[in-house]
Specification:
With 597 residues, this protein is α+β, with helices and mostly antiparallel strands. It contains 21 helices and 10 strands.
């Protein structure tokens, strides 16, 4: 789908859903908060969105869906999640539960599942178990071969949609000896099970996403036919890990949306609240807090842009991109929301405020992104296992490898570039040392300096300084490689599980994020609409990344902050998404008088 088509589609969805501050809209904050307070699953919202066919944009067109590009579904979910993360999560879970079928299912399995989903049927992804969490090769649910099919026994727990969905995609052990080839995946249609073989577990009470169905399923010799096996017997772990890579790449839509709404609500306050003879936005400290939050959001946006497009443009590298974005985006945006808390003041703590009540819900809801589909430890471990190869390639890559990465980066970070067909079976579990973002970063820096030469006035200064800061950060790849080598020599076998390796992986994520910001700027430069691109914003983004290493050093001054504030104000005033995409949002039609209370 082209940039123009996606922009138009996003506007259609926004118009359909309406202004969330308008109590009469299809998905108003008042109704969202009512579901949250009463912990009631949002059947009405889910049904409305299914009738609009929003979920079909994450399903393959070849078997009846509407998906061309993965980023279409990703961005549509952002627009849903900016209103309610519970509804968005329920829809995302259904789409992600389809991924094992998309990766390894038969034509018939895909078509059947999509036909059911188009009629309102939901899916759940039965992966985790109470005793084993993220340890997939310790799972105990067992599938025993019998005449004509399999009998499944065991329990899946903390499963989204486990009760409301008709079908669960189940990861179960089929081998008698434990190990990577001991697991397979099955389609379990709960309506076809004997009544005494299946039991839904109680829905858990949650801190955030209170309206979500997070429950489980217990099976006792539940029969499924041979046609329910997805892929080959013993292929389950590989399929599950590839499906998880997709989940890690797209789940960032939830914290991105939460911070977008949180920042929007905070601006409603700071732009209208008068204190000490001026608005809160005019207080230099508050203005910096707001613009830094905006810069954090745009860092996460750039990383997500690349990671989601990586699914199609470089699927063999997804193990790196998905883990980098899954670690840094939720971690970064949790800190961002905390910073906004300071600006909004006591209002962020009020659950029933007529205007700011949704803020505290967003604050709670965004936390799920850090734990779902692989937590911080899982993702840093995955990067740590590949770090030696990534750093070696970053240091020693030939000109040919760098040039090829630079060519791919034009598609990975160019919003107006057409993507190749999505072929999820091309994903790899290890990237073999390749990360096009880091490898293409030197080319991105050259392009950035070329843009600086063509710019005039303060914009030229901003871009030159941004290039200098980015180069400083990216030059840490060499010392990072030296640290890894020294650590490996010092710790020996303990290196792979050491806390120090996790810290090195965190720093590598900063390199990847720096590259993402630069490459998004240079490759989407011509596709952005005013007030973007902004050299001041890029400089502030890079300062925010640099502060992870030097927390008390500033490289921007008040003039940079003022320029970024003008960008932020314009997007807020014109009701556009705080993103490189800048989608037109539903016009603010609700009564905003409560914002001044």
């Amino acid at each position: 789908m082209s940039q123009a088509d996606l922009t138009a589609l996003a506007a259609e969805l926004e118009k359909y859903l309406g202004d969330p501050f308008d109590d009469g809209s299809r998905m108003s904050f008042r109704r969202v908060m009512d579901h949250d307070e009463h912990e009631e699953y949002p059947y009405g919202f889910v049904s409305q969105l299914r009738r609009w066919s929003v979920h079909e944009y994450s399903l393959p067109a070849e078997q009846g869906g509407r998906a061309g590009n993965v980023e279409t579904g990703f961005n549509l979910m952002r627009l849903v999640a900016r209103r309610d993360a519970s509804t968005a999560t329920s829809l995302v879970i259904t789409n992600l539960s389809f991924m094992p079928l998309w990766i390894a299912g038969t034509e018939e399995q895909k078509r059947t599942a999509i036909e059911r989903m188009k009629r309102g049927g939901g899916l759940s992804w039965g992966l985790s178990e109470r005793e084993h969490g993220s340890d997939l090769i310790a799972n105990e649910m067992f599938a025993e071969k019998v005449d004509g099919g399999w009998e499944l026994t065991g329990e899946k727990w903390l499963i989204g949609n486990a009760t409301v969905a008709d079908t669960m995609i189940v990861y179960a052990r089929t081998g008698k000896r434990n190990g990577p080839a001991a697991y397979s995946i099955f389609i379990v249609d709960k309506w076809e099970l004997a009544p005494d073989t299946a039991e839904e577990l109680p829905v858990e009470k949650l801190h955030g996403l209170r309206a979500l169905d997070l429950s489980g399923l217990r099976l006792q010799r539940a029969f499924v036919p041979d046609s329910a096996l997805v892929g080959a017997e013993g292929q389950g772990l590989e399929i599950a890990l590839k499906a998880t890579q997709v989940a890690r790449s797209v789940i960032g839509s939830l914290p991105l949306s939460a911070v977008d709404t949180g920042l929007r609500l905070t601006l409603d306050f700071t732009e209208g609240r008068v204190i000490f003879g001026g608005t809160v936005s005019d207080v230099p400290y508050s203005r910096r807090q707001l613009t830094e939050a905006f810069a954090d959001l745009m860092i996460a946006d750039a990383m997500s842009l690349g990671a989601v497009r990586c699914l199609q443009a470089a699927p063999e590298q997804l193990s790196v991109w998905s883990s980098a974005v899954k670690y840094l985006v939720p971690t970064l945006l949790e800190r961002t929301m905390s910073q906004l808390n300071t600006v909004l003041g006591a209002r962020f703590f009020l659950r029933d405020h007529p205007h700011y009540g949704p803020y505290q819900k967003m604050l709670r809801d965004l936390l799920v992104a850090n734990i779902a589909d692989g937590n911080t430890v899982v993702n840093l471990r995955n990067l740590g296992q590949q770090l030696d190869g990534l750093l070696t390639t970053a240091r020693e890559a030939s000109p040919e490898i760098r040039n090829a990465a630079a060519v791919r980066a034009e598609t990975l970070f160019g919003m107006d570039r057409e993507l190749p067909v999505y072929e999820p079976w091309k994903q790899e579990l290890f990237s073999r040392g390749m990360d096009d973002a880091v490898l293409a970063a030197p080319d991105g820096l050259r392009r950035l300096r070329a843009l600086a030469e063509k710019a005039e006035g303060t914009e030229r200064d901003r871009l030159e300084r941004a290039a200098d800061v980015a180069e400083e950060l990216l030059d840490r790849a060499g010392p990072l490689a030296d640290s890894a080598t020294a650590l490996k020599a010092d710790l020996g076998r303990a290196y792979g599980q050491s806390a120090e390796l996790f810290e090195l992986s965190k720093e590598y994520c900063l390199l990847h994020a720096t590259a993402a910001c630069v490459l998004t700027f240079v490759h989407s430069h011509g596709a952005l609409e005013s007030p973007l691109p902004s050299g001041a914003l890029l400089l502030l983004q890079l300062e925010r990344l640099r502060r992870h290493l030097y927390p008390h050093e500033s490289i921007t001054d008040q003039s940079v902050v003022d320029e970024v504030m003008e960008v932020l104000r314009r997007l807020h005033r014109e009701d556009r998404l705080f993103s490189h995409w800048q989608f037109q949002l539903a016009k603010r039609a609700g009564d905003l008088s409560a914002a001044r209370l």
